[in-house]
Amino acid sequence: MLTLATIFGLLGNITTGLVYLAPVNTFWHIVQIGSTEEFDSLPYVVKLLNGYMWVYYGVVKPNSVLVATVNGFGALLELVYVIIFLIFAPPRMRAMTAILFGTLDVVFPIATVVITQMSCNRETQISIAGFLSLLFSVVTYASPLSIMKTVVTTKSVEYMPFLLSFILFINGLVWTVYAVITRDWFIGIPMGVDLFLEQLSWCCMQCIGNLRNQRGRRSIMWWKTDAQLSISWTILLHCYTNMRAELWPNITLLRKEK
């Protein structure tokens, strides 16, 4: 029998898979023209590392196989993206990508797994893997802020694809619900950050649209933004309430012991 956590985990696998597949057209274009042009490899190197860490977290934590499966799929895709960079990038970018790949995607994850497996118990392994996954996820989700700067500077929303922004929002929403159900705050916190940043991007799109007097789209954008804000803040408040209920007794106990 499917539990609610399993249902949302499966939905999260679908939405996260779509997020990982989003750059396919970009890399198909790179392969066709035989050049990476002005694209930067760093986001894909970091996403590959992020995928590795979530796979490790899903493996060491009990009942988290759905976290491992989709991120294993994503890590394979990101590896393909990085290999394409290594093949088609100019010499300087290729050398930089190779150094980043060797350091962040080979040495660091291997060292993390070996050290934690040899010197830490299972709970510590889960905490370390979860914290690293949280950290790299926040970095990954914060990367679109540079696109928002471009949108504000150019006063054009063409640099911020609506469909990708919408998929990221749904992905964050689904995994946040999953985190609330399973009480997994290593998943809940970065997904909460994702939801917040998507609010910023949608509000940015709304403001730019209003400045450009896009009357036909304005009411729709207002409705979407208001609905998105209402849903995400309700879930984030629920996350905070549950997290505080879990952590506060432990904090009180530590104070009494002191």
Low-confidence region ranges: 213-229
Q: Helix coverage percent of residues?
A: over 70%
* Structural Rg: 20 Å
The overall average pLDDT, rounded, is 78
Distance between the termini: 46 Å
The biggest sheet amounts to: none
Q: What structural class results from the helix and strand content?
A: mainly alpha
Number of strands: 0
Mass-distribution shape: globular
- Oligomeric grouping of the chains: single chain
Strand content: under 5%
Overview of this protein structure:
With 258 residues, the chain is mostly helical. Helices cover 86% and strands 0% of the residues. The protein has 10 helices and no strands. The protein has helices at 4-21, 24-33, 42-60, 65-88, 91-119, 122-142, 145-154, 162-182, 185-211, 215-257. Helix 1 (4-21) packs parallel to helix 4, helix 6 (122-142) packs parallel to helix 9 (185-211) and helix 8 (162-182) runs antiparallel to helix 9.
In short:
The chain has 10 helices and no strands.
Characteristics:
10 helices, about 260 residues, globular, 2 domains, mainly alpha
Helix/strand layout:
Blueprint: H1 4-21, H2 24-33, H3 42-60, H4 65-88, H5 91-119, H6 122-142, H7 145-154, H8 162-182, H9 185-211, H10 215-257
Helix pairs in contact: 1-4, 1-8, 3-4, 3-5, 3-6, 4-5, 6-9, 7-9, 8-9, 8-10, 9-10
InterPro entries: SWEET, SWEET_rpt
Keywords: Membrane, Repeat, Sugar transport, Transmembrane, Transmembrane helix, Transport
Protein name: Bidirectional sugar transporter SWEET
